[in-house]
Design goal:
Pfam families: Porin_O_P. By secondary structure, the chain is mainly beta. It is built from six helices and 20 strands. The strands form two sheets. The protein has a 16-stranded antiparallel β-barrel with strand order 1-2-3-4-5-6-7-9-10-11-12-13-16-18-19-20. A two-stranded antiparallel sheet has the order 14-15.
Length: 446
């Protein structure tokens, strides 16, 4: 659970002194003879007690001076293990022999958030897995009438349903290749957002500078140096009934990125602890425009989502290639839970077991089966070689291929803030063959 630190301070010394003051003074008054000297002593004692009480009240205000500015302290721990069961000879000969696998802390994060005014919030989140890296570090201005909600700092750009759903709540261990390639991840900039008609129509747009020294984005499979991104996203819950038990989500996004000559990419096959299955550098790139579509739904314990995206790459010389990708995934809770949907943000949230497992003889927790198919196609880039494309391994046909990934997943949520995940991943690289992985995750967030 989040550790809430708002409300009353931990100690209230002054209240105790008020009690003792009202109790002691009458006793002193009853015991004191009616003489002028003792009356003066009584007045002096009262004055001293009042002074001590005031000093304790002043000290109380300094007991936890930051208490009123922090609403949540939290974090997450995700411990992953990847097993490479089998891989084709061509994959290992060209990319790596053997393909990488093993254990890692996928995410190890701590954060603090709160408000310094009713209209001004903040959040600071750092990731310590593999070195310190900025995640969400921003200010948020809100609830100022017609003025839109404004975020300034380092945070995710408004691109992709799967990207904007927290890694605590995604259905499978890794996001799709579509999200990894098309979403820039965390970038520093400014964003304006607004909801209309009781969150039936939501829009967000912003400008982001990738040249800001904020650490490398977590999930992006593409880099642009020193240039500005312009991005926007529109979402609508076409259907939202029975407190989210029936949902139909539609969304669309746009992303413009500028480059300093090179567009470098590298994508794992939806398994984080392994090698890139496509990788290289496209040369003479001026800018790119990406368009994305989102569809998702919830029907009781079943849920479904899918996205399509296309990137058009504009170069200063020669051919202008494009890359397209899509995925579809679904899941069902065997124990009857629902996947919570947020109308305003257009993303998914925390699963809460109907009968938590808190020890022997308690409930089973929540159990979920899930599956996904995804694909990405780089074959249009092959024609740029040799002058316009430099492969990271092998030939252009091998490094800029089509990749298809099939994933089956089993999730167990013993309680709302813990999860165990098991994924079986079959990745097919069109030019070099396929590989099979089993991955597992133990996750706790608080």
């Amino acid at each position: 659970m989040h550790q809430h630190r708002g409300g009353k301070p931990m100690y209230r010394h002054s209240n105790n002194w008020r009690y003792y003051t009202t109790a002691i003074l009458p006793l002193v008054a009853l015991a004191a003879p009616a003489q002028a000297q003792q009356s003066d002593e009584m007045a002096a004692l009262e004055e001293r007690l009042e002074r001590v009480e005031q000093e304790l009240e002043d000290a109380e205000g300094d007991e936890l001076p930051w208490d009123q500015y922090i609403s949540e302290l939290g974090g997450r721990v995700q411990l992953d293990q990847t097993f490479n069961l089998d891989a084709s000879d061509d994959l290992e000969d060209v990319i790596s022999d053997p393909l990488e696998d093993g254990a890692e802390f996928r995410r190890l994060r701590l954060y603090v958030e709160g408000a310094v005014a009713p209209w001004l919030d903040y959040k600071v989140q750092l990731d310590f897995a593999g070195g310190t890296e900025l995640q969400d570090v921003y200010f948020k201005i809100h609830d100022l009438g017609a003025f839109p909600t404004t975020k300034i700092g380092n945070f995710k750009q408004p691109v992709s349903l799967q990207e904007l759903t927290s890694s605590k709540y995604i259905t499978l261990m890794s996001r799709s290749m579509l999200t990894d390639f098309f979403s820039p991840g965390h970038r520093t900039g400014i964003q304006f957002s607004k909801s209309f008609a009781d969150e039936r129509f939501n829009i967000a747009a912003g400008a982001f500078n990738s040249n800001f020294d904020s650490g490398e984005a977590e999930t992006t499979g593409i880099t642009s140096k020193g240039q500005w991104d312009i991005s926007a996203r529109i979402t609508t819950p076409v259907i939202y009934r029975n407190d989210g038990r029936q949902v139909l989500h539609l969304g669309g996004s746009y992303l413009h990125r500028s480059y300093e000559d090179e567009l470098e990419f590298g994508l794992e096959p939806e398994v984080h602890k392994t090698d890139d299955f496509v990788a290289g550098t496209i040369l003479d790139v001026e800018h790119s425009n990406s368009f994305g579509l989102e569809l998702a739904g919830v029907l009781g314990p079943a849920h479904l989502q899918g996205e399509y995206a296309q990137m058009d790459i504009s170069r200063t010389t020669g051919k202008d290639p494009d890359v397209d990708s899509w995925y579809v995934q679904g899941g069902v809770f065997l124990t009857g839970e629902i996947r919570p949907y947020d109308k305003g943000d257009g993303d998914f949230g925390r699963v809460k077991p109907n009968s938590p497992f808190t020890g022997l003889g308690t409930g089973p927790g929540a159990w979920e089966l899930a599956a996904r198919y995804s694909t990405i196609d780089f074959t249009d880039v092959q024609d740029l070689a040799p002058a316009g494309f430099t492969p990271a391994f092998g030939t252009a046909e091998q490094a800029a291929s089509e990749v298809d990934v099939y994933t089956l997943g089993l999730n167990w949520y013993p309680v709302a803030h813990a999860r165990w995940m098991l994924n079986v991943v079959q990745a097919d690289q069109d030019a070099l063959g396929d590989a099979t992985y089993i991955t597992t995750r133990f996750q706790v967030d608080f």
